[in-house]
């Protein structure tokens, strides 16, 4: 892989454990500190920013680095915390809606639910955002809900060692790529020029994708879910789409808030699933016109949400290349993917 590096030779896998450590171990991580750190890191062309930087073994958008470093410095998991882990464009918005609705179902009537007026990203914050506002953390009511795109190996040690639970949602690599390409095209500044499907696909197959490579990200959570199934729940986007009610029930049980027999009889699982469905969220006014991030409008989070849309974009040669990469990286892991409906 051709990597554009700084002028001196460095080891991209150990950089943050040695040379970059001095640049992140300050109480105030300012613009100058970020510039110095970025100068040490290998970089590649970015999807929605000029570059992605190889930090702790994953490709990171530079705007996220201060928050990630802040999380590593300040965050301390509680046993009741629930961490939602996803690769970008793998169903993050849907998972946030479901988990919020399930865990807060005693607090809100469905007819007056916060999801009707708030985007899921406003209700379940990313760790790299919330830890920059560390003073607000004590006000979070248990179970505290946080989201992350970090690979398992890069999570704060307190997350891995505490009693908190991790829910990982994985989407097949073909649809993850297509969804990512469409999304980041919208978030990409005009002065960077367009990002063609072919160029993005080549980057993706080489692992250059936000918080990727894809295979390293999913494999870390997959292995941990096999070793500690009470700690990590590994869900597949395609299974959740195919049999939503079964997996919503499974999700609630894993998080320690199982549905009662009465709730099941009253159809609450179905009502929550409908509230959080792609079709319902997409038509809400807040998700048509609102903005939860400075980079894109909320409507960018709701394109199609289908399984198998990749067939409308990828050539047979692209499919062959990606299948070969996935087999090479994940073959033998016991992690099959459903790439069609």
TrEMBL record:
Presence of the UniProt keyword Transferase in the record: yes
All residue ranges annotated as the Sulfotransferase domain in the record: 79-334
EC nos: 2.8.2.-
InterPro entries: P-loop_NTPase (IPR027417), Sulfotransferase_dom (IPR000863)
One Gene Ontology molecular-function label: sulfotransferase activity
Family indicated by similarity: Belongs to the sulfotransferase 1 family.
Protein name: Sulfotransferase
Organism in which the protein naturally occurs: Rhododendron simsii
